[in-house]
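Appendix B, record 7
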Amino acid sequence: MGVVRERFPPKLSDKGSELIFRFRCALPVMTLVIRDYRPTDRAAVIGCLDAMHEAMVPLDPWRRVVRQPSHGKLFVREVLQRVRQDRGFILVAQVDGETAGIAVAWQVRFSPARRTTELPTRVGYLSDLSVLAKWRGKGIGTRLLHETEQRFRRDGCDQMSLGVFFPNQKAQQLYFRNGFTRRGMILGKRLGPPRKNWPRHTGPRRKRSS
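Structure tokens (predicted):
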């Protein structure tokens, strides 16, 4: 099923703009709407975040990626806070009223020291792009990616960046097809078996008083 390249005029609402597309397929025509997040979308966003992370579990060659039941609720809380702090946004893709995917993005803050290492820039960062399994392969991820890029352009960003889990080859192919190139790499090395519990304190050790 392909996406008709005709773009319908934006449909404005009090919650932000809605971008409407249509699918051409053997079944009745379906309408894809991409719009801004609303508080009523919280449960659907949690479902998308959980599905995205769950798909990463079998891809991890180290077998360290897990998904706890509380993942989505905790993660969406952090995401909403980051979006508020850093001029971000969440786009929700719906097909005939059913949530099919999301894109979470915000602008990067540069510290004074970091500003001495690059030319002046405003960078938009795509934190998460998730399409539910039922709707994958229908161009929805590409549409979300394009709309995220357009939003950053309107906000004055001259760069867009993202991180991708290296074993996730399908995601990498999507980004390469849409003009992204490798600019850095994060390397890892296992130093021991996984811990049974999270450490209570990860900062500098306190000196014991004599």
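Remarks on this record: Strands lie at 2-3, 11-13, 16-24, 30-36, 89-95, 98-107, 123-131, 159-162. The domain at 2-177 is CATH 3.40.630.30 (Aminopeptidase).
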